[in-house]
Design goal:
12 helices; mainly alpha; two-stranded antiparallel ribbon; 70% helix; 239 residues
């Protein structure tokens, strides 16, 4: 007689579970531009690579269209998102607007303990280093994302939290490039310290302005980030 463990092990995965798994796998590829900008996605090859049928692949790609990672052209198929300075700048402008509003609600709604915990998300994981050339900017980007998300979560606004999570996914590829650029290297730590100070003092106006100025991306910098992104995608080159 088979054990209950054996029975469970042989139980087939639910279709919804398969779609979720495939979606996360394809999304990870899309987030990091493993599909080149404007590249047509081969559903058959992708299904073989992920060990599934085309159905969960197609369902996942449709979800990624909704999420802004893919486009769909009737009678042609799915294509990876393009990479253009205007779209990068637009995402950062949207992010700045949401985070500035969230900062105001955080000042009004969060407890002192919650504010201290949000500040610690940054200070505990990204202490300032004297030699900036030795910084692992991928880790700094992760800490930066976690810190900014922690502030938005203090707003207690579920829609803002959801929206910023979606934006974070779409800018994750650019975040490292942005943070390690000359424009950011000497300012990120100091700007975060100023934001934390304003949050601790519950200064909505000063903190909101700091958040917006910290995030916002000029047209020229968007072009710089886009060029570096394209170099990494097509040539694997950094710097």
């Amino acid at each position: 007689m088979r054990s209950s463990t054996q029975v469970k092990a042989q139980k087939p995965a639910r279709p919804a579970d398969v779609v979720d798994r495939v979606y996360e796998a394809i999304k990870e590829l899309a987030v990091e531009y493993r599909f080149k900008p404007g590249e047509r996605v081969n559903e058959v090859e992708l299904a073989a690579r992920l060990g599934c049928s085309r159905t969960p692949v197609r369902e996942s790609l449709n979800r990624l269209v909704r999420d802004g990672f893919m486009t769909f052209v009737p009678n042609k198929g799915f294509y990876s998102r393009e990479l253009a300075p205007e779209s990068v700048q637009a995402l950062y402008e949207l992010r700045a607007s949401i985070e500035r509003g969230a900062f105001r609600w955080a000042c009004q709604r969060a407890s002192d303990k919650e504010i201290a915990a949000a500040a610690a998300v940054w200070t505990n994981s990204a202490g300032k280093l004297d030699d900036m050339s030795a910084v692992d900017w991928t880790q700094v980007a992760k800490a930066d994302e976690a810190f900014h998300l922690a502030i938005v979560e203090l707003s207690q606004n579920s829609e803002m939290i959801r929206a910023i999570g979606e934006i974070n996914d779409r800018i994750r590829f650019f975040r490292v490039i942005d943070l390690e650029s000359k424009r950011r290297r000497g300012s990120t730590y100091d700007e975060h310290a100023a934001i934390i100070d304003a949050l601790t003092r519950r200064d909505e106006d000063v903190g909101g302005a700091l958040i917006e100025r910290h995030i916002i991306m000029s047209s020229a910098h968007a072009v710089e980030v886009t060029k570096e992104g394209l170099a990494r995608i097509f040539f694997g080159r950094t710097g």
